[in-house]
Design a protein that fits this description.
Elements (H helix, E strand, L loop, with lengths): L1 H12 L15 H21 L34 H15 L4 H9 L5 H19 L5 H5 L13 H11 L14 H9 L3 H22 L5 H27 L11 H13 L11 H18 L12 H22 L11 H20 L6 H14 L28 H33 L6 E3 L2 E3 L2 H19 L1 H16 L1 H12 L7 H19 L7 H35 L4 H5 L2 H18 L5 H22 L9 H22 L10 H10 L10 H7 L5 H11 L5 H17 L28 H5 L6
Antiparallel strand pairs: 1-2
Helix pairs in contact: 2-3, 2-4, 2-5, 8-9, 8-10, 9-10, 10-12, 12-14, 13-14, 13-15, 15-16, 16-18, 16-19, 17-18, 17-20, 18-21, 20-21, 21-23, 21-24, 23-24, 23-25, 25-26, 26-27, 26-28, 27-29, 28-29
Length: 782
């Protein structure tokens, strides 16, 4: 009859996890004592397996009535208690000794009682689970009323001893599997109470039953077998979830509570051995353990404070600092304490390191959209590339030598770092553009609007903005180089690209706020010629890194400088145009006022050139030197005036004197056109000759120095001399023709072109070029 009731109870207990069935029990004093004795045995067995039991594994715990094997000394009342399980066991041992006279007789009566043995065993485990919950601070209000003694963590021994201990743990022998498993609900309760070893042993027993029934049923799969398989899957799922929760939180628990990891390790190892057998979970338990480690790392990272950027400008720098600190402290804890709770085959430290590589990478990817400012993007890039590997985190001394065998690289998506660098450079270009716009605004506010005279540096006009721009860009480039060489090159390219448009934008702002009528217009133009020259020279230092970008910038700056210098040239030419037009005229011969004005304006030009930095000052002076010479001599070619009555000597003297004055001015300006200095003197020599026959003797030097001086130019000079026609006129032209033929084109220097572009009016005298013999036949006497 008793056997039939046990069978009925067993079948009734094996229900799905979703059911709420209860196991009936019989009351009575005898049954209570039987359950008490069963509980005592169960607790004694748990004490033997507990990692906190003094004396280590394998020692048999005995009561006062037992003898034989080595017996560990009971702790005194003053000594600390190592486990709540030990307290409970000691309490029942004491009661057993006090009632030793009567207990055996009652025990015999209980052996024949109708109490379900599974219920006794289950109740004893419940009591132990309650004790464990108290050790994990998972107490109820009723438990809080009870007095608890604190846990004492086991002292950590040398690494060699721990390694040997873990090696021995790998030789673990599974306890005896119960012949009759507990019910599904009871096993589920054991899992909830973190009684993992007993829950697993009963799961194995249930699994054996399933396998045996499956073998007996053959191809037929009765409904009861399918139900049992479903129960197994649900229970195993609950067990795995509980294990993953323990593993996930293991590095956050106090060190004394990490004994829960021991049954976790045993279960994983045992399930790996039985992976091919039916009734278990198909996927890897070791992989599930790694996932739990990763989840724990992810939870820890997610708990790090992240302020709103509106509340703290340094929100990202603070968060990254806390993240690095958390990583280091957590890995230090794993190395120092947590890894000794596992056998070496689990490679705990390596698993945590790889989990941090992966989880931190995911965390940064999630964080990246919030990072929009240049300083924050830089901080993030620097932390990823340099900070994460530094001694403050993965390269910490406290993590050695274990980290020597591990990679210290973050696990990021393939193009994440490239996108982050591109985003940084894009934001950097936006910031540079705003900075350059502020330069134009500042120049208007401090210089143009108030018509302030530009400053001088070493005697040259200059503005401060080129140095400000260069210093700013150099700082960005140096900082990027501290991250890596690739980013440095990208930053240099970005800076030069954004700087390329600055000359045109600056010119537009300059012309908008200033006009040529402004008194300081010339000084401003010279200032910006010097300033942009200096800026281009600063940027030339990056030609080796970004040659194309430097060349593009140079073209833009040269274009601006050319336009500014062209403006100065046009202004000077307009100022002296009237004075030059009045040279070599009848009034010029008797009045020096126009030349004096020309000279004064040229002197001002010389002063302006002195304020301009090389090489533009010489180029500018040379071009205007050429203009003045061509326009001055050009007036001689226009045949506006012919010297008669011995005025040619006076005219030649005046030309020589004015030419010397102009030559001195352009020499002071360091004009490069030295070949122009002698043209005035050589023409003066021809003009001043008293005897017309001597003119042809002074043509060779002029033809040699100025190959583009041709016959029509000589005719214009002779016209000014007063020699318009006649035999001597023709002889001079014949001599000139012979000299041109003799010299040919071999000595012609194409860079020395002066007379070619001079305009000469058409000759209206039809007899001027006829030979003298023809003209003599027309005379009245002939």
């Amino acid at each position: 009859m008793s056997q039939m009731m046990d069978t009925e109870n067993t079948e009734e207990d094996r229900v799905s996890l979703k059911s709420n069935g209860k196991t009936p029990t019989n009351g009575g004093a005898k049954e209570s004592l039987g359950m008490l004795k069963t509980l005592r045995k169960s607790i004694r067995r748990a004490a033997e397996k507990s990692p906190l039991t003094s004396g280590g594994k394998g020692l048999k715990v005995t009561t006062g009535n037992e003898s034989g094997s080595l017996t560990p000394q009971s702790p005194s009342r003053s000594s600390p208690v190592t486990s709540p399980l030990g307290n409970i066991g000691g309490l029942f041992n004491k009661k057993d000794e006090e009632g030793s006279d009567t207990t055996p007789q009652k025990g015999k009566e209980l052996a024949h009682s109708k109490t379900d043995p599974n219920m006794s065993r289950f109740d004893s485990i419940l009591t132990r689970g309650e004790s464990i919950r108290r050790s994990l601070n998972l107490v109820t209000k009723k438990d809080k009323a009870c007095r608890q003694q604190p846990l004492v963590s086991v002292a950590e021994g040398p690494a060699e001893e721990k390694t040997e201990e873990k090696a021995k743990e790998e030789e673990y022998t599974l306890p005896e599997i119960p012949h009759t498993p507990l019910s599904v609900m009871q096993i589920n309760n054991l899992i909830e109470l973190v009684e993992l070893q007993d829950a697993h042993l009963n799961l194995l027993a249930l699994r054996q039953e399933f396998q045996q029934e499956r073998e007996r049923s053959g191809d037929d799969s009765p409904v009861e077998l399918a139900k049992k398989e479903k129960d197994l899957n649900l229970l195993y799922g609950e067990l795995r979830n509980k294990i993953k929760t323990i593993v996930r939180d293991s590095n956050s628990l106090p060190s004394g509570n990490k004994e829960l990891l021991e049954p976790v390790v045993r279960i994983i190892q045992e399930e790996e051995k039985r992976a091919e057998q039916p009734g278990g979970l198909q996927d890897s338990w070791r992989e599930a353990w790694r996932e739990a480690v990763g989840e724990g790392v992810k939870v820890k990272i997610g708990s790090i404070e992240l302020e709103q950027k509106e509340n703290n400008l340094s929100w990202l720098a603070v968060h990254l600092g806390l993240l690095g600190k958390t990583i280091l402290e957590d890995l230090e804890s794993v190395k120092k304490d947590l890894r000794w709770s596992y056998p070496p085959s689990f490679k705990v430290f390596s698993t945590y390191v790889r989990s941090y590589h992966s989880c931190v990478g995911q965390h940064l990817k999630k964080l990246e959209p919030q990072v929009t400012e240049v300083k924050d993007l830089y901080a993030l890039l620097n932390w990823i590339i340099n900070g994460y590997k530094s001694e403050k985190i993965m390269g910490g001394v406290s993590l050695q030598p274990e980290m020597e065998e591990e990679s210290s690289d973050l696990q990021l998506e393939e193009d994440f770092l490239k996108k982050l660098k591109d985003k940084y450079c894009c934001k950097l270009k936006e910031d540079i553009r705003c900075t350059l716009d502020r330069v134009i605004e500042q120049e208007n506010k401090t210089i143009w609007r108030d018509r302030k005279t530009p400053e001088k540096d070493e005697g040259f006009l200059h503005s401060q903005f080129p140095m400000d721009i260069w210093t700013n860009l150099k700082g960005l480039i140096v900082c990027s180089a501290a991250i890596d060489a690739q980013l440095k090159q990208k930053v240099i390219s970005s800076c030069l690209q954004e700087l390329k448009d600055f000359p045109k934008r600056f010119e537009a702002g300059f012309r908008l706020h200033c006009s040529a009528l402004q008194p300081l217009w010339t000084e401003y133009q010279i200032t910006y010629i010097n300033s942009f020259t200096a800026l281009q020279q600063h940027m030339e230092g990056y030609r080796d890194t970004c040659p194309a970008e430097v060349e593009d910038l140079k073209k833009e700056i040269n274009g601006l400088i050319f336009r500014l210098m062209q403006g100065l040239e046009v202004q000077f030419k307009e100022d002296v145009e009237l004075y030059l037009r009045r040279m070599i005229t009848r009034k010029w011969l008797t009045d020096d006022e126009d030349f004096k004005k020309l000279s004064r304006r040229t002197e001002l030009l010389s002063k302006h050139c002195a304020l301009m930095r090389p090489p533009h000052n010489q180029d500018f002076a040379s071009r205007l030197h050429y203009h003045v010479v061509r326009e001055y001599i050009g007036q001689l070619m226009k045949k506006n005036f012919s010297c008669k009555n011995q005025k040619h000597e006076r005219a030649a003297s005046k030309i020589r004197k004015q030419w010397e004055e102009l030559r001195d001015l352009f020499e002071d300006m360091e004009s490069a056109h030295e070949w122009l200095y002698d043209v005035g003197d050589e023409l003066s020599i021809i003009i001043e000759q008293e005897n017309k026959r001597d003119i042809k003797n002074h043509l060779e030097t002029l033809v040699k120095h100025y190959p583009d001086f041709c016959k029509k130019h000589l005719v214009a000079v002779l016209y000014f001399r007063g020699l318009i026609r006649g035999r001597e006129h023709q002889l001079i032209l014949q001599k000139f023709t012979e000299l041109k033929k003799t010299q040919g084109r071999a000595d012609e220097d194409k860079s020395h072109v002066l007379f070619r572009d001079m305009q000469i009016p058409a000759n209206t005298d039809c007899f001027s070029h006829l030979p003298f013999s023809c003209l003599s036949s027309l005379l009245p006497d002939n």
